[in-house]
Amino acid sequence: MMSLPHPLSQHKISLIGAPSDAGAGSRGSSMGPEALRVAGIEPALLNHGLDVEDRGNLSGPHNPWDESSGGYRHLDEVTAWCRVAHDAVYETLKRRRMPILMGGDHSLSMGSISAVARHCREYGKKLRVLWLDAHADFNTCDITPSGNLHGMPVAVLCGFGPAELIELGGVMPATPPSVYRLIGVRSVDPGEKHFVHKTDLDVFDMRYIDENGMHATMERALAGVDADTHLHVSFDADFIDPLIAPGVGTPVPGGPTYREAQLCMEMIADTGRLGSLDIMELNPAQDVRNQSAALAVDLLESLFGKSTLMRKRL
Description:
Belongs to the arginase family. By secondary structure, this protein is an alpha/beta fold. It has one domain: 3-Layer(aba) Sandwich (Arginase, Chain A). Helices cover about 35% and strands about 15% of the residues. The chain is built from ten helices and eight strands. The longest helix is centred in the N-terminal third of the chain and has 20 residues, at about 75-95. The chain is globular and about 50 Å long. The relative contact order is 0.17. Residues about 1-10 have low confidence and may be disordered.
């Protein structure tokens, strides 16, 4: 096996825009990458002493805005976007840089996480995925109420989906369900709920967070993360309560507060194992003065160590 240095010791970040909303139920998330740029994502990271390159936007097919066919909407278009996302993320990891994939809708994570899983297999790393989302995203063509592929990425990555998507990373399934920790979930479709239980996904829903607090939630979600772990964070902007992050396509009331979200990011940063990141589902068409993108950038800074005080190491 090849060896890698500590993921955060490289301080080399690659921003990759993926302006597609082909997997979503409403248009607008294709503008997410530019919203993040307008909110200052690159200078924010540079201010933390990081080496940052913006690779611009990937190219893919337009959104045809068709009806569902065979249980999927826009399968060909979503597959094409996921392939280019996979290739870009995989190539970035090969260059020993940390990819930040800026979506775009959450179906794009099928491409990014397939690439990360492939990378981990090649380097003998354990993979842990934190899926920060209001939704479980564990639908299949048989149980989906809409056919929108942004509601299916976790299921597809676990091997439940069309061949063209489940085989993206060269191995099927790309990941086992055991690598996922779903955090902040508060909207699950009826059929999806049964499938989540059947597959034994680790889900820390909002009731769990309400009853136990974000600190205890993150301690459990991060348990077992060590020096051999590649930590991937897939952040859906609707993870946050829509009162402070209205710029999303599928808002669900009752999400984490600003401080809960900050604590979540700070505890991820404390592990030092962050190796790759998705920022998905920002929808400027639903936003107010780009405040949701600005909040995403603020949280991103916490992922890279921003805190109120320098903390003493015990």
